[in-house]
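pipeline/complex-builder :: batch 7 item 3
reading input block
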Amino acid sequence: MLSMKQELTAKERIRRMVEKYVAKGPYRLHPDHDRVESIIQGLAKNLEGYGRAYCPCVPVEKCLEAGRKYVCPCEPHHDDIARQGYCDCALFVSEEFLNNEKMYIEALAKV
Amino acid sequence: MAIKIGEKAPDFNLKGVDGKIYTPESFKDYKILVLIISCNHCPYVVAYEDRMIGIQRDYLDKGVRIVAINPNNEITHPEDSFDNMVIRAKKKGFNFPYLRDKPQDIPKILGARYTPEVYIFDQDRRLRYHGGIDDNYDNPEAVRHHYLRDALDNLIDNLISGRDVGRNETPVVGCTIKWK
């Protein structure tokens, strides 16, 4: 388990990386705040534990074997977003997916 | 398309890791049916497996049956093949059926997007809860909201009174379903 100080430091580094990447474009952040926070937490945990911000949606053993491939933003994310509108962790999404997802979340909120 | 609160559970006919074919009829003796869209490879699912086993153990005598369904594409994620499901279920000692949905029909009908994603159906097999297991996949000790347990407690309490389950939609955190 990470100490609060370590976790905040790693989280802050990840958050900055993610914000910088999104600002550069063309991708956007997933609109579900809880989801984004959870992925940032997972990336931070991997950064602290393994020295690299491995995708938290990929088993860490697979990440370690694959070298740089699953370090966020991972190698497959361009193809994944082109194919399905979101990267496999659903952290980065396309503009089109974002608009559809916002409608979905608004519809859920009305239930 | 996504199933809404109050709507009927989907029909299914799926093979379990024990080699048997399961349908909704297989669970007719249970008051509450919990479908969890799950898989082998996802680290979020792996983190939740022991909690799923614990919840099944704690609620079995209250008429609750958990059923895990793996719809993931085994071409892109071979860890999620049926053979690997059998191995995983044995290794972890799953105390609930673990079913393979190769055509990916069930998550499509449910509107599921992630693993693990939970759907609770009442005695009439109407959806009463959709969401996550709890609010901290990483650390079971730090969980503040036990979404699934709370929903089951409320539903069991309210089966007699017919009242609502309470909070019936919660955030889902997990891996995306690997579609074909």
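note: Chain B touches chain A through 22 residues (CB under 8 Å).
queue -> next item
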